[in-house]
């Protein structure tokens, strides 16, 4: 497939799946293979930036008041509270990237709660395609999450608990347009690319 060919279907692609399943790995391959065709949606948050994070790259860092105003203006496709912080994906962010000729990829963050996030996007009225990434087994998911070495033990346990809920939800018929089992990463990537580039009937 030529490097910079846009998919025929320009609707945003919502990628969800348990933490550590390989979502980031898969969409990074997609972005690398198709330069300038996709944009990862940058979320809004009320939390403080961590070292090395940048406004507009990792998140849009806003005040709780600004976040509330955006909610009141129906400006989010999904938003959630995690601890004392709020996270959300704004409609404007999606519209801006789409206007630039990019297909927006929404990576539903664990902080937003994948189940609630997907339900909210569906209710928001935006047209989107839904991809769920599944691990070959629960044991393998645990192995990847630990192998990544980014989480504390407490966080691993929390993510695995959350994963159970998400995997159950994914079995609900009609929620996702495709469920990809990320066993062999090349095979899983090919399935994702074929789905995204499927010609519009
Ligand atoms: N098919 C695969 N086989 C083995 N390891 C994989 C595979 N895909 C991804 N991984 C590894 O699993 C770990 C988790 O992957 P990744 O960070 O992409 O997950 P994620 O779903 O984006 O997680 P999060 O939701 O927490 O951001 C990484 O160390 C990655 O290299």
Unreliable spans? none
Q: How far is the N terminus from the C terminus?
A: 19 Å
Number of strand segments = 9
Q: Major sheet: order of its strands?
A: 2-7-1-8-9
CATH homologous superfamily caption of the domain at 13-41 and 101-196: P-loop containing nucleotide triphosphate hydrolases
The CATH C-level class name of the domain at 13-41 and 101-196: Alpha Beta
What small molecules does the structure contain? adenosine-5'-triphosphate
Keywords: Kinase, Transferase
Protein name: Guanylate kinase
How would you describe this structure in keywords?
201 residues, alpha/beta, Rossmann fold, five-stranded parallel sheet, four-stranded mixed sheet, 7 helices, globular, binds adenosine-5'-triphosphate, transferase, kinase
Brief description of this entry?
The chain is of the alpha/beta class and 201 residues long.
